[in-house]
Amino acid sequence: MLNQIASLYHKAQKKEKLIIGLMSGTSMDGLDIALCSFRGSGASTQIRLLEFKTANYTDLFRQRVKSIFSKQMVDMQMICIMNEEVAITHAELINDAIKDWGYQNEDIDFIASHGQTVFHAPKSLHRITDLPNATLQIGDGDHIAVKTGIFTVADFRQKHIAAGGEGAPLAVYGDYLIFSKKGENRIMLNIGGIANYTFLPGDLDSSKVFSTDVGPGNTLMDQYMQSHFEGLYYDKDAAVARQGQLNQSLLEALMQNAFFDAAFPKTTGPELFSLEYLSNAQISSNTENLSKEDIMATLVHFSAATTASAILRETYQWDSFTIYISGGGMHNPYLIELLKQLIPNAVFKTTKDLEINPDAKEAVLFALLANETISGNSTVDLGGKEGVPSVFMGKICLPK
């Protein structure tokens, strides 16, 4: 044990560290693996993305995760088993990526593992007043550490909740350190299963920085495609949605939820934005006989409208600002067209313009959180706002 602690200390002191960041989102299309070089920490962090890939999951693996994903009634044995299986699968994919990139496992200092979210239950969703915020990510860090031989930092969201947050979104910490720029008001918009954004003020006042979930992102569209179009996990290039027409009555029914009026920061998940949510909206709007194409078109408008509304809520007084997009939703051309129409005074770019592959961004941000935990001298201070604790996150798992 003492040798492991000594090795950990040595790695923490290195001028340059190689850290692999991992992200597996609610779409479950695969594991994002980002190899990053870090120098320094905090405001002096220098980061380079050296390699990136999305390692595909098998259909069987995806089906097994989906069997326990975002459900209140699940097979507890399967949750227990999949906690190990997710980690074993991720470790195998990491080992393959390291080999493919021409590195040895010994070259890598740390792995930063987000795990796989299976349920997110902030109080705003579960509404049990005498019980706390909660979230659950599976994919045990010890398994990854042992099977790769690499120190692993895992389970980041629990510390956020323990310190007073809701466990999400965590992007604010990395966005602030990597992407803030004096003189430019920036919105860092990530459109994953859930859409969220970080506001970075051009005056660099950290007390103004915040990150919030804003709505369904891709999750409802993906769920509907998977349920109604066999073998399809998402609507590639919005091909299905473009064949349909917006139904205004359904859109208005979808927009009727207290989440959209709640104060920032806030968090949500597919536990709310589910096929049941869609079904209830169809019943209340008498749109149960809509075509699949019309439903998909309306869901794209729903994601665009909720995202745009949340951004305009904070930026209405600005003449101009820049939105940097990342996440799978940026590949949906219909969604991006609608956002540009709804937010005409914004300049739209992606994080590629900031030298970070937009598909890799979330994995990179978890690598940064691990770097802060391992090497940071002080926590990222964002003004002590409620729900945005200044803490180091992640549990350190030893390879031996």
SS class? alpha/beta
Give the overall shape: globular
Strand content range: 15-25%
How many DSSP-defined strands?
A: 12
Rg: 21 Å
Largest sheet: 7 strands, mixed
In DSSP terms, counting alpha (H) and pi (I) runs of 4 or more, how many helices?
Answer: 13
- Looking at how many chains there are and whether they match, the oligomeric state comes to single chain
- The CA-CA distance between the termini, in Å, is 8 Å
Low-confidence stretches: none
**Relative helix content:** 25-40%
H and E order: HEEEHHEHEHEHHEEEHHHHEHEHE
How much is the average pLDDT?
95
TL;DR of this structure?
The chain is α/β, with parallel strands linked by helices and 400 residues long. It has helices at 2-13, 59-66, 76-100, 123-126, 141-148, 157-162, 171-179, 219-228, 248-254, 275-285, 292-315, 333-342, 361-375, and strands spanning 16-24, 30-39, 46-56, 110-121, 134-138, 151-154, 186-191, 195-200, 210-215, 321-326, 346-350, 395-397.
Q: Could you explain the architecture of this structure?
A:
The chain has 400 residues and is an alpha/beta fold. Helices cover 37% and strands 21% of the residues. The protein has 13 helices and 12 strands. It starts with a helix and ends with a strand.
